[in-house]
């Protein structure tokens, strides 16, 4: 069956129903489809029988299916044994980096965070022996659930007939070009890779980001230049090198929903200029400075009345009196005030001396109202030793500590996830499942905060605590319904426990729109005393 005659409604392998053709080029087509067995949206790529690299594409997809980093698109199925070869992968809903940059560049801290997550994901792929080789702003997606996704790992290189003797170098350059685009809203790569405006260049060499957009620090500008081989600094050799470099620059946390915004850092007000003396020579200004100012999208700063307003600003302060007589009057008033203060202090000392001589009848009486109350243990975020997905009656895909640790790794782009289900009541297969936290010792629990995907609204979660890890013997402490992106349990009184369990009794939707339990990050507040 040729790709050109496959129509919406076609079923592959008896379960994948093709619904909408997304793109069609180069002998393959990408479809939005429904997995009718698991009742979830999937992406399906089909191939024309004449496509010369079908076997290679299917093999690369099978290799990618073994990747476990949630920031890499998951491959579910791949087959070339039948009449129609196909690859089935995760359907990713969200906004591409190219779409985010349609109006303006990202704030540098958010751009750094976004590409840090992408670099870590590519590092995981390289550790497994896989690479991308053709990264563009269309391959990075900020999902509707607030996570980073890299599309096309391993398979896009086959589809584009890309090969490399230095995959680490190729991918770090691709990431560097994406970071350049995120900072400037200009694309320094092949024009076919993005619809963004081309980066300004001289003799084919792109200008550094700081020459294109104001507000970019020297540190992050240097990282981009090292990725792209601009300047004399040593080039970065791999995505892991880029991730390591980005750990050292300020990064802004990403929001929990698609659309990162385009807030720019405030411009620093220019210091007032003194008029030059006649014949004086003006200091030399670097030629690049006016260029950065002209290319900047930063609005002029608003100057408000402040105590620390610079000279010449509109800050409000009292105007001094004019002339020497006013200053003399102030000195006279100060003298009178000083004399009066001396008299008052003397009278006070005399009164205290009299009381001391007579003896205060209350000298030996303890003021019970002033006794210090016993100090309460300070409430702070406690360290969670391990996190584990638990499913007492089944083998849910989120079961175990390997998946559970993703909810306590401090990264908003990773998450503990359960398997997919056909309905919020677990397809009537079970009554619940959860995420178990082991604090490592007995603590006093005051509050639990969980960061969830925005689509999880409606999920019902019970908070259970106990001295043992057995879900059945733990005490129910509270119940909450997830809002948009978070859930919080604040106990009226601290509860002593070693184990904390977030027990889902009703599911919401995960970051990919499927029905399941999902927790990006969880924190426990309390004390160890």
From TrEMBL:
Region (Disordered): 257-326, 353-406
Amino acid composition bias (Basic and acidic residues), ranges on this chain: 355-370
Domain of life: Bacteria
Transmembrane segments: none
Gene3D superfamilies, A to Z: Galactose-binding domain-like, Phosphorylase Kinase, domain 1, Transferase(Phosphotransferase) domain 1
Ranges of compositional bias, category Pro residues: 266-275
Protein name: AMP-binding protein
Organism of origin: Actinomadura decatromicini
Upper classification of the organism: Bacteria, Bacillati, Actinomycetota, Actinomycetes, Streptosporangiales
């Amino acid at each position: 069956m040729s790709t050109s005659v496959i129509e919406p409604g076609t079923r592959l392998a008896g379960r994948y129903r093709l619904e909408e053709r997304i793109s069609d080029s180069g002998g393959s087509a990408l479809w939005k489809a429904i997995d009718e067995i698991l009742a979830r949206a999937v992406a399906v790529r089909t191939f024309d029988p004449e496509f010369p690299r079908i076997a290679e594409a299917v093999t690369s997809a099978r290799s990618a299916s073994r990747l476990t980093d949630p920031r890499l698109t998951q491959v579910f199925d791949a087959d070339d044994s039948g009449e129609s070869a196909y690859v089935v992968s995760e359907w990713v809903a969200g906004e591409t980096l190219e779409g985010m940059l349609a109006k303006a560049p990202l704030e540098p801290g958010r751009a750094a965070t976004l590409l840090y997550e992408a670099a870590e994901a590519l590092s995981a792929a390289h550790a497994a022996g896989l690479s991308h080789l053709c990264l563009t702003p269309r391959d990075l997606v900020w999902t509707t659930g607030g996570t980073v996704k890299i599309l096309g790992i391993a398979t896009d290189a086959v589809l584009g007939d890309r090969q490399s003797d230095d995959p680490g170098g190729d991918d770090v350059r691709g990431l560097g070009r994406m970071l350049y685009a995120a900072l400037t809203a200009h694309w320094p790569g092949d024009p076919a890779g993005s619809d963004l405006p081309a980066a300004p260049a001289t003799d084919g060499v792109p200008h550094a980001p700081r020459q294109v957009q104001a507000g970019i620090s020297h540190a992050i500008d240097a990282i981009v230049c090292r990725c792209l081989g601009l300047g004399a600094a040593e080039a970065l050799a791999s995505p892991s090198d880029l991730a390591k470099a980005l750990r050292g620059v300020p990064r802004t946390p990403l929001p929990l929903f698609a659309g990162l915004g385009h807030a720019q850092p405030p411009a620093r007000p220019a210091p007032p200029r003194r008029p030059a003396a006649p014949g004086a020579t003006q200091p030399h200004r670097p030629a690049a400075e006016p260029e950065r100012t002209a290319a900047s999208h930063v609005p002029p700063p608003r100057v408000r009345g402040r105590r620390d307003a610079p000279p010449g600003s509109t800050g409000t302060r009292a105007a001094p009196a004019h002339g020497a007589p006013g200053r003399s009057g102030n000195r006279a008033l100060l003298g009178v005030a000083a004399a009066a203060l001396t008299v008052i202090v003397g009278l006070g000392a005399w009164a205290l001396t009299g009381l001391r001589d007579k003896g205060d009848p209350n000298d030996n009486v303890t003021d019970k109202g002033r006794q210090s109350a016993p100090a309460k243990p300070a409430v702070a975020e406690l360290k969670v030793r391990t996190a584990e997905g638990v499913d007492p009656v089944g083998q849910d895909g989120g079961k175990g500590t390997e998946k559970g640790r993703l909810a306590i790794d401090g990264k908003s782009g990773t998450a503990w996830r359960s398997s997919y289900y056909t309905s919020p009541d677990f397809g009537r297969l079970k009554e619940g499942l959860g995420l178990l936290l082991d604090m490592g010792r007995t603590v006093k629990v005051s509050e639990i905060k969980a960061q969830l995907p925005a689509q999880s609204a409606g999920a019902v979660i019970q908070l259970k605590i106990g001295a043992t890890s057995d879900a059945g013997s733990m005490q129910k402490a509270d119940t909450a319904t997830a809002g948009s992106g978070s859930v919080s349990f604040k106990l009226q009184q601290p509860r002593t426990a070693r184990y904390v369990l977030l027990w889902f009794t009703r599911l919401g939707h995960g970051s990919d729109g499927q029905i399941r339990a999902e927790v990006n990050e969880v924190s426990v507040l309390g004390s160890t005393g």
